[in-house]
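Appendix B. Raw example, untouched.
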Amino acid sequence: MIKVTERRFKSLMRVLSRLTAHYVSMVLVLSLLSCSLAGTPSLPGISVGTESSEYIDVSFPEELSHSPSPSPLPDLKAEAVIMASGDIILHDSVIKGGEQSGGGYDYEHIFEFVKDIFTAADFSMINFEGTTAGPGYSGYPRFNAPDEIAKAILDAGIDAVNTANNHAYDKGIEGVRRTADVFRETGLIVVGTRSDASDPGYFISDINGIKVGFAGYTYETHGNGTGRYINGIYLPEEAWPLVDSFNYYSSTRLAEDKKVMRARISEMKKAGAEVIVFNMHWGEEYKTSHNSRQSDLARFLALEGVDIIFGHHPHVLQEIEVITSENRSRNTIVFYSLGNIMGNMGFNTHSTNGYAEDAVIAEVKIERDSSGNISVTEGRFFKTYIWKDDRSGKRIHRILPVKAAVEDPQYFGADENVQRLAAASAIRTDNVLSGSLRDEGPVRISERY
Protein backbone atom coordinates (compact mmCIF):
# COMPACT_ATOMS: atom_id res chain seq x y z
CA MET A 1 0.00 0.00 0.00
CA ILE A 2 1.19 3.55 -0.84
CA LYS A 3 -0.01 6.47 1.31
CA VAL A 4 -0.75 9.77 -0.47
CA THR A 5 -2.63 12.96 0.38
CA GLU A 6 -5.89 13.72 -1.43
CA ARG A 7 -4.23 16.47 -3.46
CA ARG A 8 -1.45 14.14 -4.57
CA PHE A 9 -4.08 11.51 -5.26
CA LYS A 10 -5.79 13.80 -7.77
CA SER A 11 -2.44 14.51 -9.39
CA LEU A 12 -1.88 10.80 -9.60
CA MET A 13 -5.16 10.46 -11.43
CA ARG A 14 -3.85 12.69 -14.18
CA VAL A 15 -0.81 10.45 -14.51
CA LEU A 16 -2.96 7.34 -14.61
CA SER A 17 -5.05 8.88 -17.38
CA ARG A 18 -2.03 8.59 -19.65
CA LEU A 19 -1.49 4.91 -19.05
CA THR A 20 -2.11 2.22 -21.65
CA ALA A 21 -5.54 1.06 -22.76
CA HIS A 22 -5.23 -1.90 -20.39
CA TYR A 23 -6.16 0.47 -17.53
CA VAL A 24 -8.60 2.84 -19.29
CA SER A 25 -11.63 1.59 -17.39
CA MET A 26 -9.87 2.01 -14.10
CA VAL A 27 -8.90 5.60 -14.96
CA LEU A 28 -12.55 6.48 -15.75
CA VAL A 29 -13.71 5.22 -12.40
CA LEU A 30 -10.97 7.08 -10.57
CA SER A 31 -11.93 10.32 -12.35
CA LEU A 32 -15.43 10.01 -10.88
CA LEU A 33 -13.94 9.43 -7.46
CA SER A 34 -12.22 12.78 -7.64
CA CYS A 35 -15.66 14.45 -7.54
CA SER A 36 -17.19 12.42 -4.71
CA LEU A 37 -15.00 10.34 -2.49
CA ALA A 38 -17.44 9.48 0.31
CA GLY A 39 -19.45 6.29 0.26
CA THR A 40 -18.07 5.03 -3.04
CA PRO A 41 -17.17 1.35 -3.27
CA SER A 42 -13.50 0.63 -3.76
CA LEU A 43 -12.09 -0.83 -6.93
CA PRO A 44 -10.14 -4.05 -6.67
CA GLY A 45 -6.63 -3.27 -5.49
CA ILE A 46 -7.47 0.37 -4.64
CA SER A 47 -8.57 1.54 -1.19
CA VAL A 48 -9.90 5.12 -1.02
CA GLY A 49 -10.75 6.98 2.21
CA THR A 50 -13.27 9.79 2.77
CA GLU A 51 -12.64 13.52 2.44
CA SER A 52 -12.05 13.70 6.17
CA SER A 53 -9.28 11.11 5.92
CA GLU A 54 -5.77 12.46 6.16
CA TYR A 55 -4.40 9.90 3.73
CA ILE A 56 -5.69 7.84 0.84
CA ASP A 57 -4.20 4.37 0.56
CA VAL A 58 -3.58 3.21 -2.99
CA SER A 59 -2.11 -0.08 -4.16
CA PHE A 60 -1.45 -0.93 -7.81
CA PRO A 61 -1.38 -4.10 -9.83
CA GLU A 62 2.05 -5.73 -9.62
CA GLU A 63 2.91 -5.07 -13.25
CA LEU A 64 2.74 -1.29 -12.62
CA SER A 65 4.91 -1.33 -9.51
CA HIS A 66 8.11 -2.33 -11.32
CA SER A 67 10.12 0.18 -13.34
CA PRO A 68 12.22 -1.19 -16.20
CA SER A 69 15.79 -2.22 -15.40
CA PRO A 70 18.36 0.37 -16.47
CA SER A 71 20.36 -0.46 -19.60
CA PRO A 72 23.88 -1.67 -18.82
CA LEU A 73 26.63 0.93 -19.31
CA PRO A 74 28.78 0.41 -22.42
CA ASP A 75 32.12 -1.29 -21.87
CA LEU A 76 34.69 1.45 -22.53
CA LYS A 77 37.72 -0.83 -22.33
CA ALA A 78 40.08 -0.57 -25.30
CA GLU A 79 43.76 -0.75 -26.10
CA ALA A 80 45.95 0.32 -28.99
CA VAL A 81 49.58 -0.22 -29.98
CA ILE A 82 51.45 2.58 -31.77
CA MET A 83 54.86 2.09 -33.36
CA ALA A 84 57.40 4.64 -34.53
CA SER A 85 60.93 4.53 -35.88
CA GLY A 86 63.67 7.04 -36.41
CA ASP A 87 65.35 8.69 -39.35
CA ILE A 88 65.17 7.21 -42.81
CA ILE A 89 67.75 9.08 -44.91
CA LEU A 90 68.44 8.32 -48.54
CA HIS A 91 72.13 9.02 -49.06
CA ASP A 92 73.47 8.64 -52.60
CA SER A 93 74.32 4.96 -52.19
CA VAL A 94 70.87 4.23 -50.75
CA ILE A 95 69.26 5.93 -53.76
CA LYS A 96 71.45 3.96 -56.20
CA GLY A 97 70.65 0.72 -54.40
CA GLY A 98 67.07 1.03 -55.62
CA GLU A 99 67.89 1.56 -59.30
CA GLN A 100 66.24 -1.00 -61.59
CA SER A 101 67.82 -2.33 -64.79
CA GLY A 102 64.69 -1.50 -66.74
CA GLY A 103 64.50 2.00 -65.32
CA GLY A 104 62.83 3.40 -62.25
CA TYR A 105 63.45 2.59 -58.61
CA ASP A 106 62.35 0.02 -56.06
CA TYR A 107 63.03 0.20 -52.33
CA GLU A 108 61.00 -2.72 -51.03
CA HIS A 109 64.23 -4.45 -49.95
CA ILE A 110 64.88 -1.80 -47.29
CA PHE A 111 61.94 -2.96 -45.14
CA GLU A 112 61.88 -6.62 -46.18
CA PHE A 113 62.93 -8.01 -42.79
CA VAL A 114 60.95 -5.64 -40.53
CA LYS A 115 57.68 -5.52 -42.44
CA ASP A 116 56.13 -8.07 -40.08
CA ILE A 117 57.01 -5.87 -37.11
CA PHE A 118 55.30 -2.78 -38.53
CA THR A 119 52.22 -4.62 -39.73
CA ALA A 120 51.68 -6.12 -36.27
CA ALA A 121 51.00 -2.66 -34.83
CA ASP A 122 47.62 -0.97 -34.82
CA PHE A 123 49.29 2.16 -36.17
CA SER A 124 52.87 2.92 -37.18
CA MET A 125 54.85 5.90 -38.38
CA ILE A 126 58.34 6.87 -39.46
CA ASN A 127 60.46 10.01 -39.79
CA PHE A 128 61.39 10.71 -43.42
CA GLU A 129 64.37 13.05 -43.53
CA GLY A 130 64.63 14.78 -46.87
CA THR A 131 62.40 15.57 -49.82
CA THR A 132 60.75 13.94 -52.82
CA ALA A 133 61.04 16.99 -55.06
CA GLY A 134 61.23 15.17 -58.40
CA PRO A 135 64.09 14.12 -60.73
CA GLY A 136 67.54 15.37 -59.93
CA TYR A 137 67.97 12.98 -57.02
CA SER A 138 70.68 13.61 -54.46
CA GLY A 139 71.93 12.63 -51.06
CA TYR A 140 73.90 14.74 -48.61
CA PRO A 141 73.80 17.71 -48.18
CA ARG A 142 70.53 18.41 -50.06
CA PHE A 143 68.47 15.25 -49.83
CA ASN A 144 66.02 14.46 -52.62
CA ALA A 145 64.75 10.90 -53.05
CA PRO A 146 62.76 9.16 -55.80
CA ASP A 147 59.00 8.97 -55.26
CA GLU A 148 59.22 5.18 -55.03
CA ILE A 149 60.42 5.43 -51.45
CA ALA A 150 56.89 6.47 -50.48
CA LYS A 151 55.43 3.24 -51.89
CA ALA A 152 58.06 1.17 -50.08
CA ILE A 153 57.16 2.83 -46.78
CA LEU A 154 53.45 2.22 -47.35
CA ASP A 155 53.99 -1.40 -48.41
CA ALA A 156 56.00 -2.00 -45.24
CA GLY A 157 52.80 -1.50 -43.24
CA ILE A 158 53.58 2.05 -42.15
CA ASP A 159 50.62 4.42 -41.88
CA ALA A 160 52.13 7.88 -41.49
CA VAL A 161 55.31 9.89 -42.02
CA ASN A 162 56.68 12.85 -40.14
CA THR A 163 58.30 15.25 -42.61
CA ALA A 164 59.16 18.11 -40.25
CA ASN A 165 62.95 17.99 -39.99
CA ASN A 166 66.05 20.01 -40.76
CA HIS A 167 66.17 18.70 -44.34
CA ALA A 168 62.53 19.50 -45.15
CA TYR A 169 63.55 22.66 -47.02
CA ASP A 170 66.51 21.19 -48.91
CA LYS A 171 64.75 21.78 -52.24
CA GLY A 172 62.97 25.01 -51.37
CA ILE A 173 59.29 25.70 -50.96
CA GLU A 174 58.25 23.63 -53.98
CA GLY A 175 60.16 20.71 -52.53
CA VAL A 176 58.18 21.05 -49.28
CA ARG A 177 54.91 21.08 -51.20
CA ARG A 178 55.73 18.21 -53.53
CA THR A 179 57.04 16.00 -50.72
CA ALA A 180 53.79 16.28 -48.78
CA ASP A 181 51.78 15.64 -51.95
CA VAL A 182 53.78 12.57 -52.96
CA PHE A 183 53.32 10.86 -49.62
CA ARG A 184 49.63 11.73 -49.36
CA GLU A 185 48.89 10.62 -52.91
CA THR A 186 50.65 7.33 -52.14
CA GLY A 187 48.21 6.74 -49.29
CA LEU A 188 50.28 7.82 -46.30
CA ILE A 189 49.27 10.33 -43.63
CA VAL A 190 51.67 13.28 -43.45
CA VAL A 191 52.41 15.34 -40.36
CA GLY A 192 54.83 18.22 -39.82
CA THR A 193 54.71 19.81 -43.28
CA ARG A 194 51.99 20.47 -45.83
CA SER A 195 51.54 21.59 -49.42
CA ASP A 196 48.99 24.28 -48.62
CA ALA A 197 48.71 26.65 -45.69
CA SER A 198 45.05 25.72 -45.27
CA ASP A 199 45.87 22.06 -44.66
CA PRO A 200 45.51 21.00 -41.01
CA GLY A 201 48.59 20.99 -38.79
CA TYR A 202 47.67 17.68 -37.18
CA PHE A 203 45.61 14.58 -37.80
CA ILE A 204 43.46 12.40 -35.57
CA SER A 205 43.18 8.67 -36.12
CA ASP A 206 40.64 6.32 -34.54
CA ILE A 207 42.75 3.39 -33.37
CA ASN A 208 40.63 0.57 -31.95
CA GLY A 209 38.10 3.11 -30.73
CA ILE A 210 40.70 5.41 -29.15
CA LYS A 211 41.12 8.76 -30.88
CA VAL A 212 44.82 9.60 -31.16
CA GLY A 213 46.09 12.98 -32.35
CA PHE A 214 49.48 13.39 -34.08
CA ALA A 215 51.63 16.45 -34.73
CA GLY A 216 55.26 17.01 -35.75
CA TYR A 217 57.80 19.81 -35.26
CA THR A 218 61.41 20.49 -36.22
CA TYR A 219 63.97 22.75 -34.61
CA GLU A 220 65.25 25.79 -36.49
CA THR A 221 68.90 26.77 -36.68
CA HIS A 222 70.10 29.91 -34.93
CA GLY A 223 69.27 32.49 -37.60
CA ASN A 224 69.73 36.21 -37.07
CA GLY A 225 67.01 36.77 -34.50
CA THR A 226 64.34 37.92 -36.94
CA GLY A 227 64.15 35.49 -39.84
CA ARG A 228 63.67 31.74 -39.79
CA TYR A 229 66.30 29.26 -40.92
CA ILE A 230 66.18 25.50 -41.29
CA ASN A 231 69.55 23.82 -41.61
CA GLY A 232 71.02 27.23 -42.31
CA ILE A 233 68.65 27.87 -45.24
CA TYR A 234 66.54 31.00 -45.02
CA LEU A 235 62.82 30.25 -44.80
CA PRO A 236 60.69 32.91 -46.53
CA GLU A 237 57.51 33.98 -44.79
CA GLU A 238 55.31 32.23 -47.34
CA ALA A 239 56.89 28.94 -46.24
CA TRP A 240 56.29 29.47 -42.51
CA PRO A 241 52.77 27.98 -42.52
CA LEU A 242 54.04 24.92 -44.45
CA VAL A 243 56.65 23.74 -41.92
CA ASP A 244 55.92 23.32 -38.21
CA SER A 245 59.04 24.54 -36.44
CA PHE A 246 60.37 26.04 -33.23
CA ASN A 247 63.52 27.86 -32.20
CA TYR A 248 64.89 26.92 -28.82
CA TYR A 249 68.01 29.03 -29.36
CA SER A 250 65.93 32.18 -28.83
CA SER A 251 63.98 32.57 -25.59
CA THR A 252 61.65 35.10 -27.21
CA ARG A 253 60.87 32.88 -30.16
CA LEU A 254 60.54 29.78 -28.01
CA ALA A 255 57.95 31.53 -25.83
CA GLU A 256 55.95 32.32 -28.97
CA ASP A 257 56.39 28.81 -30.34
CA LYS A 258 55.15 27.31 -27.08
CA LYS A 259 51.97 29.35 -27.37
CA VAL A 260 51.40 27.90 -30.84
CA MET A 261 52.04 24.37 -29.57
CA ARG A 262 49.69 24.90 -26.62
CA ALA A 263 46.96 26.15 -28.95
CA ARG A 264 47.44 23.16 -31.24
CA ILE A 265 47.18 20.69 -28.37
CA SER A 266 44.00 22.42 -27.22
CA GLU A 267 42.58 22.30 -30.74
CA MET A 268 43.38 18.61 -31.04
CA LYS A 269 41.59 17.88 -27.78
CA LYS A 270 38.56 19.88 -28.86
CA ALA A 271 38.53 17.87 -32.08
CA GLY A 272 38.20 14.69 -30.02
CA ALA A 273 41.78 13.51 -29.45
CA GLU A 274 42.02 11.41 -26.30
CA VAL A 275 45.75 10.77 -26.69
CA ILE A 276 48.30 13.27 -28.06
CA VAL A 277 51.50 12.19 -29.89
CA PHE A 278 54.23 14.67 -30.85
CA ASN A 279 57.12 13.95 -33.20
CA MET A 280 60.03 16.18 -32.23
CA HIS A 281 63.07 16.72 -34.46
CA TRP A 282 65.54 18.05 -31.89
CA GLY A 283 68.73 17.48 -29.95
CA GLU A 284 72.43 17.38 -30.84
CA GLU A 285 73.67 15.18 -33.63
CA TYR A 286 75.74 12.12 -32.66
CA LYS A 287 75.14 12.58 -28.92
CA THR A 288 73.75 9.53 -27.12
CA SER A 289 72.39 11.62 -24.24
CA HIS A 290 69.62 14.18 -24.52
CA ASN A 291 70.30 17.79 -23.58
CA SER A 292 68.55 20.30 -21.34
CA ARG A 293 66.71 21.94 -24.27
CA GLN A 294 65.08 18.63 -25.11
CA SER A 295 64.28 17.91 -21.47
CA ASP A 296 62.75 21.34 -20.86
CA LEU A 297 60.60 21.16 -23.98
CA ALA A 298 59.51 17.60 -23.16
CA ARG A 299 58.32 18.73 -19.74
CA PHE A 300 56.43 21.63 -21.23
CA LEU A 301 54.66 19.31 -23.69
CA ALA A 302 53.89 16.81 -20.93
CA LEU A 303 52.39 19.55 -18.79
CA GLU A 304 50.22 20.66 -21.71
CA GLY A 305 48.81 17.16 -22.18
CA VAL A 306 51.08 15.35 -24.65
CA ASP A 307 51.17 11.62 -23.86
CA ILE A 308 53.86 10.31 -26.22
CA ILE A 309 56.93 12.00 -27.70
CA PHE A 310 58.93 10.36 -30.49
CA GLY A 311 62.26 12.13 -30.99
CA HIS A 312 64.72 12.06 -33.85
CA HIS A 313 67.58 14.00 -35.49
CA PRO A 314 70.69 13.03 -33.44
CA HIS A 315 71.21 10.00 -35.78
CA VAL A 316 72.06 7.91 -32.73
CA LEU A 317 69.91 6.51 -29.96
CA GLN A 318 69.14 8.50 -26.82
CA GLU A 319 67.42 7.56 -23.57
CA ILE A 320 63.76 6.84 -22.87
CA GLU A 321 62.12 8.74 -20.01
CA VAL A 322 58.74 8.72 -18.28
CA ILE A 323 57.59 12.14 -17.05
CA THR A 324 54.99 11.90 -14.28
CA SER A 325 52.77 14.86 -13.42
CA GLU A 326 52.96 16.32 -9.90
CA ASN A 327 49.64 14.77 -8.89
CA ARG A 328 50.67 11.48 -10.53
CA SER A 329 47.55 11.48 -12.68
CA ARG A 330 49.41 11.50 -15.99
CA ASN A 331 52.50 9.84 -17.47
CA THR A 332 54.24 10.94 -20.65
CA ILE A 333 56.71 8.62 -22.33
CA VAL A 334 59.59 10.28 -24.19
CA PHE A 335 61.85 8.53 -26.69
CA TYR A 336 64.46 11.28 -26.98
CA SER A 337 65.95 9.81 -30.16
CA LEU A 338 65.03 6.66 -32.04
CA GLY A 339 68.28 6.61 -34.03
CA ASN A 340 68.93 5.95 -37.72
CA ILE A 341 66.74 3.20 -39.09
CA MET A 342 68.08 3.73 -42.63
CA GLY A 343 71.00 5.60 -44.17
CA ASN A 344 74.60 5.08 -45.23
CA MET A 345 76.36 6.33 -42.15
CA GLY A 346 79.17 3.96 -41.25
CA PHE A 347 80.99 2.81 -38.17
CA ASN A 348 83.39 5.75 -38.24
CA THR A 349 80.93 8.50 -39.27
CA HIS A 350 81.70 11.54 -37.09
CA SER A 351 83.57 9.20 -34.72
CA THR A 352 80.31 7.57 -33.67
CA ASN A 353 81.88 4.07 -33.43
CA GLY A 354 78.87 2.34 -34.94
CA TYR A 355 76.14 4.16 -33.00
CA ALA A 356 74.89 5.84 -36.21
CA GLU A 357 74.05 2.40 -37.60
CA ASP A 358 71.66 1.53 -34.77
CA ALA A 359 68.03 2.33 -34.11
CA VAL A 360 64.92 1.02 -32.41
CA ILE A 361 61.34 0.61 -33.51
CA ALA A 362 59.37 1.97 -30.55
CA GLU A 363 56.12 0.36 -29.50
CA VAL A 364 53.78 2.13 -27.07
CA LYS A 365 50.69 0.54 -25.55
CA ILE A 366 47.69 2.71 -24.66
CA GLU A 367 44.82 1.42 -22.52
CA ARG A 368 41.38 2.76 -21.66
CA ASP A 369 39.70 1.26 -18.61
CA SER A 370 36.00 0.54 -18.09
CA SER A 371 35.49 4.03 -16.64
CA GLY A 372 36.95 5.71 -19.73
CA ASN A 373 40.31 6.67 -18.21
CA ILE A 374 43.14 6.48 -20.73
CA SER A 375 46.82 5.98 -19.93
CA VAL A 376 50.11 4.93 -21.47
CA THR A 377 50.96 1.62 -19.82
CA GLU A 378 53.97 0.23 -21.65
CA GLY A 379 56.87 1.25 -23.86
CA ARG A 380 58.86 -1.38 -25.70
CA PHE A 381 61.36 -1.45 -28.54
CA PHE A 382 62.85 -3.68 -31.22
CA LYS A 383 66.57 -3.22 -31.86
CA THR A 384 67.54 -2.68 -35.50
CA TYR A 385 70.79 -2.44 -37.45
CA ILE A 386 71.51 -1.11 -40.97
CA TRP A 387 73.02 -3.90 -43.04
CA LYS A 388 75.07 -2.61 -45.96
CA ASP A 389 75.24 -5.61 -48.27
CA ASP A 390 78.06 -5.21 -50.82
CA ARG A 391 78.23 -8.83 -52.00
CA SER A 392 76.64 -8.24 -55.39
CA GLY A 393 78.95 -5.36 -56.24
CA LYS A 394 76.06 -2.95 -55.71
CA ARG A 395 75.43 -1.78 -52.17
CA ILE A 396 71.98 -2.80 -50.92
CA HIS A 397 70.74 -1.40 -47.60
CA ARG A 398 68.42 -3.45 -45.42
CA ILE A 399 67.02 -2.97 -41.92
CA LEU A 400 67.87 -6.01 -39.80
CA PRO A 401 66.02 -6.97 -36.61
CA VAL A 402 69.02 -7.41 -34.35
CA LYS A 403 67.97 -10.26 -32.10
CA ALA A 404 66.78 -12.45 -34.97
CA ALA A 405 69.91 -11.71 -36.98
CA VAL A 406 72.13 -12.74 -34.09
CA GLU A 407 70.19 -15.97 -33.54
CA ASP A 408 69.85 -17.02 -37.18
CA PRO A 409 71.76 -14.90 -39.73
CA GLN A 410 71.20 -17.52 -42.44
CA TYR A 411 67.47 -16.75 -42.35
CA PHE A 412 68.29 -13.33 -43.76
CA GLY A 413 70.84 -14.63 -46.24
CA ALA A 414 73.59 -13.21 -44.06
CA ASP A 415 76.84 -14.72 -42.80
CA GLU A 416 78.80 -14.86 -39.57
CA ASN A 417 80.27 -11.42 -40.19
CA VAL A 418 76.80 -9.87 -40.27
CA GLN A 419 75.94 -11.87 -37.15
CA ARG A 420 78.96 -10.33 -35.43
CA LEU A 421 77.95 -6.82 -36.56
CA ALA A 422 74.40 -7.32 -35.28
CA ALA A 423 75.70 -8.59 -31.93
CA ALA A 424 77.89 -5.50 -31.59
CA SER A 425 74.88 -3.32 -32.41
CA ALA A 426 72.91 -4.99 -29.62
CA ILE A 427 75.65 -4.14 -27.12
CA ARG A 428 75.74 -0.50 -28.25
CA THR A 429 71.97 -0.18 -27.90
CA ASP A 430 72.13 -1.68 -24.41
CA ASN A 431 74.78 0.89 -23.53
CA VAL A 432 72.32 3.68 -24.33
CA LEU A 433 68.99 2.23 -23.21
CA SER A 434 69.69 -0.19 -20.36
CA GLY A 435 69.29 2.60 -17.81
CA SER A 436 65.83 3.38 -19.19
CA LEU A 437 64.37 -0.08 -18.58
CA ARG A 438 61.78 -0.46 -15.82
CA ASP A 439 59.58 -3.45 -14.98
CA GLU A 440 57.59 -1.64 -12.28
CA GLY A 441 55.56 1.53 -12.05
CA PRO A 442 52.71 2.88 -14.15
CA VAL A 443 54.70 2.67 -17.41
CA ARG A 444 56.89 -0.34 -17.99
CA ILE A 445 59.80 -0.09 -20.45
CA SER A 446 61.41 -3.16 -21.95
CA GLU A 447 62.98 -4.66 -25.03
CA ARG A 448 60.64 -6.48 -27.41
CA TYR A 449 61.79 -9.69 -29.05
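End of appendix B.
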